[in-house]
Structure formats: C-alpha cells, structure tokens
C-alpha cells in the first residue's frame, strides 16, 4: 500500500487529533449555567485559501473562533450539531470552501459558539431550512453474537490542579471545563487527565498509519458520536451511527483506526465486515457496525446565498 509522505501524514494527524480532542471532550461536558451569547462580535468571511492540514478545521482560543477550508454544509452540520448526511442543500454548499474568522463577545463561553455560528449563517448566508424525517441508511452499533466485552470505568483521576508545578513532559490543554493536563509518555503516546471525565490516550503508528486511542470513561452514546469520524477517509464524519446496543453506563474503550488519507479499503464505511483497524477494535469490545435503515431528521435548505467578501 502506498504511503503518504511522512511529514505530510504527521501534519494531517495533528489537525485530525485537534478535531477528535475537541469532539471527545465536548461529548461529556455539560453547558455552563449562564446567559448564552447569541452572535459573534464581528466576523469575516472569505473564499478559502488552498487546503493546509496544519490549519484546517475549527479552532477556538482567546475569544476567537476560526473555521478554515469549510463548506456551508460542514458549517451548518457543526452549527446544528448533526452529521453531514443530515444537511441537504444546493450542490455548491458541499463543494465551495470558505475561511471564517470570528471574535466572540466578552464573557461568551465556548458552549455559546454553535448558537453564534447559527446566527452568522442566517445573517450572512441567508440560510433558511426546514426539518423533515427521512428514512436513510445508517450504521447501527450493536452487540456482537458472542456478547459485549466491556470493562467498567475505573475511579476518576484527581481533577487537574492548574496551580501545581508542571513536571517534564506535562502541559495544559484547553480552558475552563475543557482544561486537561497532558502528559507525553515514553512510548510516544500522550495522555490527557480530565478529572471526572476520566483520561484519554493517543498514540500514532507511522508505519501502519493508524491511531490508537483509549478512553477510561465513555458511554455508548458518546462512542457513536465519535465513530463517524473514524470511519471515513477524510476524518469529517460523513456517516450516521446510531446506538442500538442497549448498553448503559460508563466503560473503558480502546480503538484503533486508520488516519485520513488511508485507502478506503481499510475503512469500516467501505467494508463494515472487513478486517480494518476499527472493525478489529470493535470486535475486541464485543461490538459491531451493521448497515440499517432508520428515520433521521434532515435539515433541508430552503434558501441560501453566497456571502459577499469582506
């Protein structure tokens, strides 16, 4: 199998890991009890610069939200917290890319960001839509024929102390409820300690172009929220996964998955019964993915316009 240049693969991994970290962390954080901000203070929209894996995707820091190389369909899916197949609109909404830089108003929380992006899409793209139920193809996460093989979560690690001196190899990532202590381990992996949210560890294998990812505390609902990102070749969750395991509670989860750019033959989406890294990981947990039909809310675009440059 032909490999991508290693330096390019590492750049793709870095960008992809940011997305996974944001999503996996957000999946188990409750919104702060505060009056939500409803609009960005200011925002600029431009046709996207050429794709750069070092700067793609969404980033949030220091009161600023940045969306690089994003289509209107991707922006809408993120704003309304749905998967890409749940947004139906004109062809250009999935093919033309934009760069957006936005400043959050003072006091705004990260939890407000989606509402502010919704307002931006309505104002600048004139986005209007209705929601309808459609029977669509999904992937159902189900228990395998030999039963689930899941380990209950261990006790929570201590909450990170932001005032404690950092040891060699330690750093902090995120802010507020997202803040975690990150430790670089001797084997090249990195572990984030998130207190009541447990721990998560990433390790990249440059030879197999796979990522090993472990979470000490995860529900099946949270797992199906992340699986679409691991299933495709682009890393942006173009598949819908629903939880049909019937399993409740928190468990330890370990997953291996191919990184974006690995040929589609090694992805669950192209071969759900195949021997890809993710399929093998789910099998070890006593779980599997099956193609099924299910009624899903689809956001059907009624009106949208291309924004003027500013």
List the helices and strands and how they pair.
Blueprint lengths: L5 H21 L15 E6 L9 E5 L2 E8 H8 L7 E2 L8 E7 L9 H12 L3 E16 L7 E2 L17 E4 L6 E5 L5 E4 L5 E7 L4 E9 L1 H12 L9 E3 L7 E8 L18 H8 L2 E17 L7
Parallel strand pairs: 4-15, 6-13
Antiparallel strand pairs: 1-5, 2-3, 3-5, 6-15, 7-14, 8-9, 9-10, 10-11, 11-12, 12-14
Helix pairs in contact: 2-3
Describe the structure.
- With 310 residues, the protein is an alpha+beta fold.
- It has a domain at 136-296.
- It contains five helices and 15 strands.
- The chain has a seven-stranded antiparallel sheet with strand order 7-14-12-11-10-9-8.
- A hairpin with a 2-residue loop joins strand 2 (57-61) and strand 3.
Keywords:
single chain; 310 residues; alpha+beta; seven-stranded antiparallel sheet; four-stranded antiparallel sheet; 5 helices; 20% helix; 33% strand; globular; disordered N terminus
The general outline is globular
> Helical percent range?
10-25%
Spans where pLDDT lies below 50 across 5 or more residues: 1-23, 25-35, 263-267
Order of helices and strands: HEEEHEEHEEEEEEEHEEHE
Strand content: 25-35%
Distance between the termini: 44 Å
């Amino acid at each position: 199998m032909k490999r991508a240049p290693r330096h390019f693969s590492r750049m793709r991994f870095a960008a992809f890991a940011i997305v996974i970290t944001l999503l996996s962390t957000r999946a188990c954080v409750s919104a702060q009890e505060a009056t939500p901000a409803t609009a960005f203070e200011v925002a600029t929209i431009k046709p996207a610069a050429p794709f750069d894996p070092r700067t793609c995707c969404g980033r949030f820091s220091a009161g600023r939200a940045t969306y690089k190389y994003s289509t209107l369909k991707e922006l809408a899916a993120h704003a309304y917290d749905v998967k890409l197949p749940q947004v139906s609109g004109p062809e250009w909404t999935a093919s033309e890319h934009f760069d957006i830089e936005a400043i959050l108003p003072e006091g705004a929380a990260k939890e407000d960001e989606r509402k502010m992006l919704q307002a931006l899409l309505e104002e600048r793209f004139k986005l209007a839509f209705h929601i309808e139920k459609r029977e669509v193809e999904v992937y159902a996460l189900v228990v395998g024929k030999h039963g689930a093989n899941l380990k209950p979560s261990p006790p929570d690690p201590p909450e990170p102390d932001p005032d404690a001196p950092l040891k060699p190899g330690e750093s902090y990532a995120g802010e507020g409820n997202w803040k975690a202590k990150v430790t670089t381990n001797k084997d090249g992996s990195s572990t984030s300690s998130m207190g009541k949210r447990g721990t998560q560890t990433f390790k990249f294998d440059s030879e197999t172009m796979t990522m090993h990812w472990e979470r000490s505390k995860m529900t099946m609902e949270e797992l199906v929220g992340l699986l679409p990102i691991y299933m495709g070749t682009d890393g942006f969750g173009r598949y819908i996964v629903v939880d049909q395991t019937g399993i409740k509670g928190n468990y330890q989860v370990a997953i291996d998955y191919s990184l974006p750019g690995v040929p589609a033959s090694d992805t669950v989406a192209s071969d759900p019964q195949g021997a890809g890294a993710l399929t093998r990981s789910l099998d070890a947990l006593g779980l599997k993915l099956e193609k099924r039909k299910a009624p899903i809310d689809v956001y059907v675009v009624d009106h949208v316009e291309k924004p003027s440059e500013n």
